[in-house]
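Appendix B. Raw example, untouched.
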Amino acid sequence: MARQYTRRDLDAAYDEGADESPWLLTFGDMMSLLLTFFVMLYIIIEPSNQDYLGTLRKIGDALGGKSMVERKADVIPVETKLEKFLQDNNLVNQVQMTSDTKGITLWASGDLFFKAGSADLTPDIRFFLKRVGAILAETRYKVVVEGHTDDTPTSSERFPSNWELSAARSSSVVRHFIEDAKLEPARFSAVGRAEFNPRYPPIPENRNRNRRVEIIITREEL
């Protein structure tokens, strides 16, 4: 005679064969989120890598948000426009440009910005600053302007030391962006470095190259 199974017997059999590892689903979700996080972290460190930007954009779309992708991608058109401007106006040998995690840095060595001992912008550099200002007007990035002198001491009524001279030079550039280019003052910082942050060894042969103004377009938005 066949055995008759009760409801209790069926429930017991189901419990015995049930999957006892539902935590694997949670673990898999966690690993996916960690992978997404590390991809995003890599993009922040290497913002110029187009392949990873494309990957991050797809991940952002899948997760329902892409603001970080768009914000980081904005840096690339700025750099491209600046490069084109320098090339079109034969300034590639006079104005240097680098790009790193800090931002985009422009600088011109020697007396392109200012005459020796002066903090008054030269007429030629005003065209350059006007075009840079027009490119900056299309963004919301903060800008740091650093003034640097060579290691030759200065002592005048207006500039008792290189600290005052370098600070006055960076302030002149910031004032141009604010007054002539009509950019928002809160975006700018003016810094005087005197002779203490040379790009090249501080020897007489490098004084002309260390005497410069650096415009740093940061990756931080206002």
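End of appendix B.
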